[in-house]
Amino acid sequence: MKHIRPKNSAVTSSPKKPHAGAGEIRIIGGRYKRSKLTVPVAQGLRPTGDRVRETLFNWLGQDLSGWRCIDAFAGSGALGFEAASRGAKDVWLVERDRVALQALEANQSRLSMTGIRIASGDAVALLASQRGAQWDLIFLDPPFGDATVELGVNKVYEQALKSACDALAGDGLVYLESGLAWSAQTLGPLGFEIYREGKAGAVRFYLLAKTPTVE
């Protein structure tokens, strides 16, 4: 199973400057360690924190050389840029918010990271288009909170997980971040089992492996 294994850009020219009220986070490992990423002011944007990212990449083994990854609800791009910094050869950052997209483009242009493609659009639809594409790792971190729960965030997660399962290689992995608890009973019908899980404040996070098929 892949979790034991160590393991062109579509950016537009002259990306616009990020929102004046933007903040910053840092890449915490790999070639671009300590490089800053601008985080714009955008609705629902909640970058994965340093502690959670450190735990996740400890689970993954730090070196993602040769991996193909999708950061499906990219937001700040923290997860996708982190994967690229650690050697992933092909990273798609998918985002539909205009302000967040501008910041992703600006960050990629400034860092000149290779292997990153920034895609504008609906993450669930893009995942559905990748059926059979054999991706190694898919990050799923949709916006969450009281408002998004009321808007049916569970359905978004379920649709994304089903499509991600079809897009993964047999030993591929999904990183799932949520404000809600997930169990083997809820993930099993979607094609996954829990390999690792953690909690940081209100954030619950999981590394999921595909449920083995019975021959």
CATH architecture: 3-Layer(aba) Sandwich
At the fourth level of CATH, the homologous superfamily is: Vaccinia Virus protein VP39
Uncertain residue ranges: 3-21, 145-152
Residue share in β-strands: 25-35%
Return the CATH class.
Alpha Beta
Can you walk through the features of this model?
The protein is of the alpha/beta class and 215 residues long. It has one domain: 3-Layer(aba) Sandwich (Rossmann fold), CATH 3.40.50. Helices cover 30% and strands 27% of the residues. The protein is built from 7 helices and 9 strands; from the N terminus they run E-E-H-E-H-E-H-E-H-E-H-H-E-H-E-E. The strands form 2 sheets. Strands 5-4-3-6-7-9-8 form a 7-stranded mixed β-sheet. Helix 3 links the parallel strand 4 (90-95) and strand 5 (116-120). Helix 4 (123-129) runs parallel beside helix 6. The model is unreliable at 3-21 and 145-152 (pLDDT under 50).
Please tag this protein with its features:
alpha/beta; globular; disordered N terminus; 215 residues; two-stranded antiparallel ribbon; Rossmann fold
Can you summarize this structure?
With 215 residues, the chain is α/β, with parallel strands linked by helices.
Describe the secondary structure blueprint for this structure:
Blueprint: E1 23-26, E2 36-39, H1 50-60, E3 68-71, H2 78-85, E4 90-95, H3 98-111, E5 116-120, H4 123-129, E6 135-140, H5 146-150, H6 153-167, E7 168-178, H7 184-187, E8 192-200, E9 203-210
Helix pairs in contact: 4-6
